[in-house]
Amino acid sequence: MKKLIAILVLAAGAGFLTADDNSLALITKHLKTSGEFTVAVAEQMPDADYSYKLTPPQMSFAEQIVHIANSNSYFCATLAGDKPSMGKPASMGKADVIAFLKKSNGYCLQVVSKATTAQLNKAYKSEEGEMTGTELISILLDHTTHHRAQAEMYLRSKGITPTQYRY
């Protein structure tokens, strides 16, 4: 698993490997863009289709978005030394799921924008094993991309062209 994490970090960009004051601004910028892009994708699905699944064993569209929000909060809480406490959205309807996602995005931006170089370079224990704060953010971005792309396939199967890619 540690080899997989190392590969993901390398793929995410060499600039993230050694955190310093300059890379923190870059990391925060990409986290903000990723969050906004994910909200834009979530907003495209009609409320009536939030329970839609491509196949029965998959998560519904709403569950994909909630999973992104909960995972992001987990990674950011680990970095902050907080206990993850996002809970659940009030419902699995579009408005509540998007509000939940925005709350997670806001929390992560707050944590990352205030992070110190020491926090980014420190080793943390996570469900994925031991990794630095920078690696936590890198896996957060990669994980979000993975599930957002899945959500985009749900949109396409409903005849909706996903919003333009943002980086």
Mean pLDDT: 89
Indicate the radius of gyration in whole angstroms: 16 Å
* Sheet with the most strands, sense and barrel status: 2 strands, antiparallel
Helix content: 55-70%
* General shape: elongated
- Counting H and I runs of at least 4 residues, what is the number of helices? 6
Strand content: under 5%
Question: How many E strands?
Answer: 2
Query: What class would the helix/strand composition place it in?
Result: mainly alpha
Unreliable spans are 1-17
> What strand order characterises the main sheet?
1-2
The ordered string of helix (H) and strand (E) elements is: HHHHHEEH
Compute the separation of the termini in Å. 27 Å
What report would you give on this structure?
The protein has 167 residues and is mostly helical. Helix content is 63%, strand content 5%. The chain has helices spanning 2-12, 21-44, 61-80, 94-113, 117-121, 133-157; strands spanning 123-126, 129-132. Strands 1-2 form a two-stranded antiparallel sheet. Helix 1 (2-12) crosses helix 6 (133-157) and helix 3 (61-80) runs antiparallel to helix 6. The radius of gyration is 16 Å and the shape is elongated. Mean pLDDT is 89; it is low at 1-17.
